[in-house]
Amino acid sequence: MADAPIMKKRRLRPIVAWRAMQDLFADPEDTAHVFHILRALSSSRQFTKLFNRVMAEPDGRRLLEENTSLIATLSDRDALHALPAGTLGNTYARFMDAEQITADGLEDASKSDDNYFYDERAERLANRLRDMHDLWHVSTGYGRDFVGEDALLAFTYAQTRSLGVGFIALLAYLRFWREGWKHPLPTIRQGYRRGRAAAFLPAVEWEAMLELPLDEVREKLGLGEPPDYVPLTAENMDDVVGAPA
Fold first, then answer.
1. Beta-carbon neighbour count of residue 86 at 10 Å?
2. What tens digit of pLDDT does each residue of 47-91 get?
3. Quick check: 180 and 227 in contact, CB under 8 A?
4. How far is C-alpha 158 from the geometric centre of its chain's CA atoms?
5. I want to staple 169 with a disulfide (CB 3.0 to 4.6 A). Which of 6, 66, 153, 226 is the partner?
6. Helices (H), 27-87
7. Which of 213, 226, 225 is CA-nearest to residue 88?
8. What residue spans define the domains of the chain?
9. What are the DSSP calls for 102-168, one per residue?
């Protein structure tokens, strides 16, 4: 007997994704556009493969079956600040402070009336993937600037094979290339290669990593050294060396 489906089949909506991508380019700070793209390009087959891979990992299965809440842990900013300097948890807390964002910010941006999971464990995986995003920023060393975000998306695509994530990463890469921004391109390609080489992060028990030194986390997960690249933001675009004429 075939395994029961974990989510409803969804029709890909490339036109909706394209329009949401234009909105995202116009307003990169509005994260809701990202989730519109992800939902429009959500593939039940791809997510089922990812879910099965996580469930094949002992820690991954346990996390999904025990219904652990990563966002609850990450929202306790006082506890994270109390961790020793240099640990993943303390560095994450300072990163969130510096960026003026909260752990539940992505949760708010991702809210939808859609309910298309049959299996609660699959929904937990989708939520954990969302909540891991800023931990991946800190662990990989990619910032929230334009280059860092796209490099992390390329990394994430290599890890998850999400069509929506790959779509955003590719179009952002092509936009850099088309507009003459050549220096970000190697960093984004490196992001994809790092994602291929790293441990399988969706199955990692991040709660157990927070008290470890960040260097140790990077070594354990095969992330290598943080990248050396020139961040690109709306504020410094005219001053970056190699900017289009």
1. 12
2. 999 999 999 999 999 999 998 889 999 999 999 999 999 999 999
3. no
4. 11
5. 153
6. 32-40, 44-55, 58-66, 70-74, 77-81
7. 213
8. 14-220
9. -TTHHHHHH--S---BSSHHHHHHHHHHHHHHHHHHHHHT--SSHHHHHHHHHHHHHHH--HHHHHH
